[in-house]
Amino acid sequence: MATDTTTLDIPQLKREEIGPALTPQQLIWRRFRKHRMAMIGGVGFLLLLAFIIVGSILLPERRANQVDLQARLSGPSAEHWMGTDSTGRDIFSRIIYGGQISLVVGVLAVVISVSLGSLIGGIAAYYGGWVDAILMRVTEAMLSIPSLFLLIVLGKYLGRDVQTITLFGRSFSGSVGIVIIVIGMTSWMYLARIVRANVLSLREMDYISVARSLGASDARIFFRHLIPNTMGAIIVSATLGLAGAILNEAYVSFLGLGVQPPTASWGNMLTSAQSFIQRGAWWMWVFPSLYIIFTILCINLLGDGLRDAFDPRSQRHL
Question: Between 2.60.40.1180, 1.10.230.10, 3.40.50.880, 1.10.3720.10, what CATH number should domain 35-64+86-310 receive?
Fold first, then answer.
């Protein structure tokens, strides 16, 4: 029986036609770049940072705290773009320096929570056994503590007694440090659970066994192999945690128990505005509220985009 030796004429695709293989980082950027709302959030957040940084360079801090009783409760004008408050301080300048405080509180609190969550969750999963049992029980105990209530109590009894902090030439009320520490120490538990779940699956991978057989120390395996491969979850959690930290600072400052005057924050600006809402001084609460809403919206849009971009199973934006 004769066999047909005719070869099929199948066109061979050249590598140039397919394109070079994309690295994981390039795939993440590609997914994020095609997430339209995330790009809007990212651009908005960058514009907010530029506004605060450039504004603090052009306008000195003394302008934000300068009292002018003759101009008190003045509406928006050419001299005071966002009006003045009950003591004649320029709201535009206080928005800039209040934004600095709100973002510094949020970023430093997130650094504390991410560091604790990554270490506790990663160590619990890597060593397992009684280490895992103890650390997870501590995590569950911390989850039962209402962080906002603790923040209010400590802000009331400790915030006013802590001395003023001077950092980078600026003076901050001691309550800023209390707010940062409490928010950071009470918001790491959910990230610890996420990191623990990821490390539990990663520690059984072949490359971890190879690294261990080659004599790599536990610290090297942990910080060079396990944590870097969990960075997707950590970055997303940090982004969304930043929005929560800014909101918590605004809550307690609005109640008068967070950042204390003369240090401006968006939260305590709303506190000083609540007595003048019915007097027609709408600018005292509208502008701080708009900046809080805008910041939280941009961060949440950015966090949603990062969550989709770091998900390798997401084909929505490829």
Answer: 1.10.3720.10
